[in-house]
Amino acid sequence: EVHLVESGGGLVQPGGSLRLSCAASGFTFSDHYMEWVRQAPGKGLEWIGRSRDKSKSYTTEYAASVKGRFTISRDEPENSLYLQMTSLKTEDAAVYYCVRAVKHSDAYYFDYWGQGALVTVSS
Amino acid sequence: DIQLTQSPSFLSAFVGDRVTITCRASQGISSYLAWYQQKPGKAPKLLIYAASTLQSGVPSRFSGSGSGTEFTLTISSLQPEDFATYYCQQLNSYPLTFGGGTTVEVK
Q: A50 in contact with B at a CB cutoff of 8 Å?
């Protein structure tokens, strides 16, 4: 069974840094695209970035709102996905979801989601 | 960026009603569209991918249609567990974007 478990959320001051982790199990981690999606309190969903699979060298894509501040990485032996967040702003406060993507035709759809990690940015 | 506009933003319906939600894209996205269901305090759940393909385990009362710029999610007979917020998402181009959501509440 696929499991995605996020950790590392918490309270951070504006301008600070935080690293989220996502422990993956139940599937071949290196074969899948992985995503980060966030949801501000009471708001909709926002895609923030992607890590492609091993065949594509785990290359990444980012939303403009986080590009240059957030970095997605993986630890293959640990089956873990990371989101390093720096220069945090109050508008980055949200629940952050780790998501597995699966390929159908030419696109990658978000089929399994973690429970989410809450990040609060406040002084 | 491709904008997705969902309508309505909110709807009230009875158990047993047929419900249709529309998602319009600001430019053509072929069939690279997904629908998700989210209940309060929970992660979203994939319902439909490639505009019209039902995800494994999702009840057949859910269906999706459309291509290009206009898409619909239909629930043929609303059940108590279907009261939730629904989002569409385009996977045609970066940045991947979501619609603003449609909340379905009990009438």
A: yes
